[in-house]
Amino acid sequence: MVYDLTIEYRNNPVGLDERPRFSWKIENTGQDIIQTDYQILVISGGRMMWDSGRVKSSQSVLVPYRGEALKPFTEYQVQVNVWNNYGRFGQMSGCFETGIIGEENWNGEWITHTLQAEETACPIFVKRFKAEKPVKKARLYATACGVYEVCVNGEKAGDQFMAPGWTSYHNRIQYQTYDITELLGPSENEISIKVGNGWYRGELGFDVRPDHYGNRTALTAMVRVEYEDGEVLKFGTDTGWEVETGEIQFSEIYHGETQDFTAGRTQAGQAVLFEEKNRIGHITAQESEPVRVTKRFEVKEKIVTPKGEVVFDFGQNMAGLVEVRLPETESGKLVIRHAETLDKDGNFYTENLRTARCTDTYIYGSDQVGMAVMPHFTFHGFRYICVEGAGTEVGAEYFTACAMCTDMPQTGKFSTDNDLVNQLQSNIQWGQRGNFLDIPTDCPQRDERLGWTGDAQVFCGTASYNFNTALFFRKWLRDMAAETTDECGVPHVVPNILGDQAGAAAWSDAATIIPWTLYQVYGDRDMLKEQYPMMKQWVNYIHSKASDNGLWQNGFQYGDWLALDIESGSTDRTGGTDKYLVANAYYAYSARIVRDAARALEYKEDEKTYGDLYEEIVTAINREFVTAGGRLVSETQTACVLMLYFDLVKPEFRERILHILETNIGAHHNHLTTGFVGTPYLCHCLSENGLHDLADEIFMKEDFPGWFYAVKKGATTIWERWNSVLPDGDFDKSGMNSLNHYAYGSIGSWLYEKAAGIRCAEPGYRKIRIQPILTKGMTEVSASFESMYGTIRSSWTCREGKICVDVEIPANTTAVICLPEKEEEIETGSGRYHYEYETVTSLELEKYTVESTFGELVAEDLGRQMFEQMAPGILDSPMIKFAYGMTISELLVQAPDAKPMYMAVIGALNEKYRNEN
After folding, report:
1. Which candidate in 228, 250, 289, 386 could, as Cys together with 120 as Cys, close a disulfide (CB 3.0–4.6 Å)?
2. Do residues 341 and 465 both lie within one domain?
3. 529 with 612, same domain?
4. What is the CATH number of the domain that holds 214?
């Protein structure tokens, strides 16, 4: 009856330093199941630490521990008992283990090495010790200024990569807990910890300079061995640890890694104390899931390019590494270069990597042939590898691609009978996998890979459908809060390596939008409360920059980044929408979010303060950007969408602005022109304002600009630009062209919410709204979302005159179901529901649309007859020949009153085509 017990979002976590909260799910075995009571027992060493008693409550998500103070390095057993309204009883057990709890319990020194700054070999810190008694449990706790890997007796401890992750090092640094019990021998043991430059002192940023945080890597670690007789052996890093160098001769995130297996381990002296330790913030336990290899790919195709390059295609663009079973070489050197794509001639293409070399090199002798190796302290964005040094006969069996990302549980699935949509959904999820690597990066391949706040902000809704992002974003938001200042506001990248840049709209608004989104998805009031001071700080920062008219109209802004509505020939990347309209729309939106967050947290004074501020901003926006007649100073798609979606216009002007938006889209042949700011909301806005068919048409476009353009070009991830690859196969030459860049994948939330109809009605999905909208081009849709309460499922088909809808609502929740083409709302509890009824709707894609030319319609006898009947003499006009090559959408811009005629002809021709086929 009870399943999926999680403790602070994780199953049986080890190394927990904060008061845990318990969540569980109830099996969906019938209708209207509600939990009536629960009991939580927490036991340690046979001693009861907390008995909640039998609590009359339906709460099953994030119930806080309220027992005795937790002790460090201690295991706790958890038992949850649950009763439901059918009188059934269920029980589930789990456990957790605390870490250091407080930094005062850390007994390792910060140590470093004496290698010269120009040396690039990674130091290895080594400690040998004896386990003199039978071991019951052994743990190693470690962190580093750099990235590190632990080995015990030559075996890697744990399965994570790039530890301790990237944080705002001056404020906080994570440590990891390793279970090394099974790795210890009965007597002599060796712990060796390799440390690479990583983000701490590696090359980062646009100037690709090293030493952003410090010019020397360092380590601190501690070991705790519990013997079976109860005695504890504990020790930490100090100057007694030795320093060696090994096979890793060079390692940089951007450039790759060089391993020389002929070098061997070499003594490099003793460890010394790290004099810069005061520049490092407090040590905190690992806060999110670690980076792991989450999927492995065999080679899909071996290619010898026109240039003679030996290239292997893994079939999927990803972030990660290649595991190599070292082949024989003539020179004893194997070089592997990485790339996302081939050029139009079929040659290996790396220009979009800019200065990043993305090259791994292995030097080895005959003794190492056949050994499986892979890099330690780098990662690459790639689909293809170019192999040098093994000849053209080297086989595909030597190479395996290992996709890496923060190991978040997958929570969302979306599929349809339209293969292009399914590939797009895969691209969206792989874009997330490739860029959620400890932080939300903008790209995994070139010399950037930074935590851009704007990219994460626009994608966080979609991201939280696809995967459980609660811990991932909480960790990153804590760094955002640490980096936010009253003087500069919220940084553009987090962790911030770009310096003191003033905050910018849509990017810095991640400080309000992401916490609020997480609250809606997970119902985590504690997380919202933790981030609330930063949310206020950001809105207060904008308020301090406002002019006398109450608006933010100064400083740098990104505008609608990479929008297509710029003047021809312009290199401006900020789009055609007034940048300060964008800035103030977000100002209002963030103020409203803070008002709503204050309401949720029961901060009554703040609710009034920010509620009043929100109303003042909206009034000022209408005074500055809206004419007395309801027109906008910028009548771009993005401007209209922001004003409508953020509900910033007066009610009497909504229809006019919606018409302006519709006209603008029609003028662009029903294509979008939006950039990073407008795209996430465009289809949502249309669907919510009675224009779902137009949203659908924009979504289904297969040419540029549109989502399927990239899909049909063979993309397996989302591109940074709508035309990253040009129609002729050339590449965008802007110098900023990632083929794995998730921002435009934000359309994913529209698929879940509108096409499938899974929507949150109360925070945490305690109440659910199921409202699918039939979407032309898909006759079958199936989607599910694993909420904190269980699986929400919405599936529908519309074909052969019948609509079928299947819905699953998890136990302990309620729902409102709104069926397609039905007006009534069905209120229900948990369970599985099936609906079936007749329809005249056809969702098959039609041969003729408003993108058909007038000439294509007239070429059909039926079309010609209908035009002559509805508009006698139209085909005899001497000017009509100019219309033959124009699309109907172009003609409607000039003659909107003719829409009924054109639509009638299109409809009749499509019906004739269906009947004939």
Report:
1. 250
2. no
3. yes
4. 2.60.120.260
Task: Give the full edge-to-edge strand order of the sheet including 147-152.
Answer: 155-156, 147-152, 188-196, 123-130, 242-245, 266-270
Question: What gap in Å lies between CA 187 and CA 716, rounded to an integer?
Answer: 51
Rounded distance, CA 254 to CA 354, Å? 10
Q: Is residue 845 a part of any domain in this protein? A: no
Inside any domain, residue 458: yes
Task: Quote the pLDDT of residue 682.
Answer: 98
Do residues 574 and 558 touch, judged by C-beta distance below 8 A?
A: yes
Instruction: Mark whether 398 and 438 lie in a shared domain.
Output: no
Beta-strand relationship, 767-770 and 814-817: parallel
Q: What is the mean pLDDT of residues 382-405?
A: 97
DSSP, residue by residue, 897-910: GGHHHHHHHHHHHH
Backbone angles phi, psi at 147, to 5 degrees: -120, 150
Other beta carbons less than 10 A from residue 262's beta carbon:
11
Active-site residue, selected from the candidate residues 720, 753, 808, 890: 720
pLDDT of res. 452: 98
Question: 438 with 541, same domain?
Answer: yes
Instruction: Choose the final residue of a domain: 98, 132, 156.
Output: 98
Banded model confidence at residue 118, pLDDT cuts 50, 70, 90: confident
| Residues 543 and 637 both lie in one domain | yes
CA-angle at 194, arms to 189 and 197, nearest 5°: 165
pLDDT digits (tens, 9 = 90+) for 894-909: 888 889 999 999 989 9
Residues 768 and 700 occupy one common structural domain: no
Q: Are residues 445 and 492 in the same domain?
A: yes
Q: Give Cβ neighbours of residue 911 (< 8 Å, ≥ 6 apart).
A: none
Residue 393 annotated among the catalytic residues of the structure: no
- 3-state secondary structure string across 360-395: EEEECCHHHCCCEECCCCCCEEEEEEEEECCCCCCC
Active site residue 448: yes
Residue corresponding to tokens 């590696």: 202
* Range 126-137 average pLDDT: 95
pLDDT digits (tens, 9 = 90+) for 848-866: 888 788 999 999 999 999 9
Amino acid (one-letter) located at 710: A
Domain housing 813? 760-838
Contacts of 40 (CB under 8 A, 6+ apart): 22, 50, 51, 52, 63, 65, 78, 79, 80, 81
Domain count of the fold of the chain? 6
Among 78, 98, 118, which residue terminates a domain? 98
Same domain, residue pair 477 and 614: yes
pLDDT in tens, 555-610: 999 999 999 998 777 778 999 999 999 999 999 999 999 999 999 999 999 999 99
Strands (DSSP E) contained in 800-844 are 802-809, 814-817, 826-828, 831-838
In whole angstroms, how far apart are CA 83 and each of 2, 33, 88, 344, 812?
10, 10, 6, 63, 11
Q: Of the residues 226, 448, 483, 753, which is catalytic?
A: 448
